[in-house]
Specification:
The structure is a homodimer of 135-residue chains. By secondary structure, chain A is mainly α. The first copy, chain A, is built from six helices and two strands. The structure holds a DNA duplex (30 and 30 nucleotides).
Amino acid sequence: MESLTIGKVARLAEVGVETIRFYERKGLIDEPPRRESGYRQYPEDTVHRLRSIRRAKELGFTLKEIKELLALRIEPATTCEDIRGRAEAKISDIEQKIRTLKSMKEALMKLTLACRGRGPVSECPVLEAMESDER
Amino acid sequence: MESLTIGKVARLAEVGVETIRFYERKGLIDEPPRRESGYRQYPEDTVHRLRSIRRAKELGFTLKEIKELLALRIEPATTCEDIRGRAEAKISDIEQKIRTLKSMKEALMKLTLACRGRGPVSECPVLEAMESDER
DNA sequence: ATAAAGCCTGTACTATACTACAGAGTCAAG
DNA sequence: CTTGACTCTGTAGTATAGTACAGGCTTTAT
């Protein structure tokens, strides 16, 4: 078990040192043990957690939501019912996101085809796609 | 062709009046014509545009990106090549998002199954999924 | 005709998610 | 054993995306 300084973790996870301390304050990562000097000592898997957070962020989840997602693993098994409920809610959330992304993708593909064929692109299929996804 | 006041548009699009003016300043929606009194007069399709913007935002696109997406329709046909390039870039972007969302969804489904079966949920499949999606 | 509701500009404030110091102590390579 | 890179806490500043007035004119319903 190697242990890493904050700077090393930052470099490996491709985030800023300040970001790590910020996430710690926000409860997204655990407070790591310290040496006598006060320096934080991180286990290697913190790097993965940070990368996970970054990825989830790119998907449009807020830090608050990400915290919830990550919390699903550490909750005691006694609240299993609740965990399942929350996981299922996240699943429909994700499914909705996928559906909307798919229709946007199709719209964009139509657009590129129209471009390829040199046809007129007066109407906006992107807009259409996003509009047709109303619930 | 009905024309709508800002308040009506806001109600129909389910956004705030201030948000519409904000989007106008940011160039996400066109400056509408005004009456003599200075009141904005919107065409009906502004409502759809606003809903589109809201949906794109939920997918993790920033206003800047949304502006780009919307701009794809109004660019003159002369830059067709460029439009196609940008559309294709957005498509791979979207595909990546979909892939990551799918693996998150699968992870969450595993989690709910584990819960259903009352099995131990010590490891975090959500985290795993997000981690295994590294490029 | 008058009052409530709506709209105008402009500025200021909020939440989220960082990012950047300041000032002081710590570590490690030559 | 020093010096430069690193870390600490704490506070302040930035970008994004709104949100909330203030003070004043306009519409509309009664």
